[in-house]
């Protein structure tokens, strides 16, 4: 059981360390921002001169529950895109495997895809990236 906001949420711990949790239950779990950072630049800046700018990084989030649920992913801000907003790159890294509302454990890739969709809807991660960008620009 996860304890979230005074409510117990049923989970199953697997032998390989994954936490099985229903999609509907996961939506009630509070997550806190752990870290957001920039990737270190690769190559020298002279070889990138004249290229469109993009900024990449990663972010990690942790549930406020026991056992902990951990989710992390890479992101990019591409200055070629209008609005220059951050978007998630690829699948998240996590210890969560989702269970459908009818009780079926999702295959790993399907679970990651759905978890990515939930991340984009539920977590204010783009704000953490924007705050990081503003801080880096001011330094």
Could you explain how this protein is built, in words?
With 139 residues, the protein is of the alpha+beta class. It has a single domain, classed as Nuclear Transport Factor 2, Chain: A. Helix content is 24%, strand content 38%. It has helices at residues 23-26, 108-122, 125-138, and strands at 2-4, 7-9, 11-13, 19-22, 31-38, 54-63, 70-78, 86-94, 96-99. The longest helix is centred in the C-terminal third of the chain and has 15 residues, at 108-122.
Give descriptors for this structure:
139 residues; alpha+beta; Nuclear Transport Factor 2, Chain: A; four-stranded antiparallel sheet; three-stranded mixed sheet; 3 helices; 9 strands; 38% strand
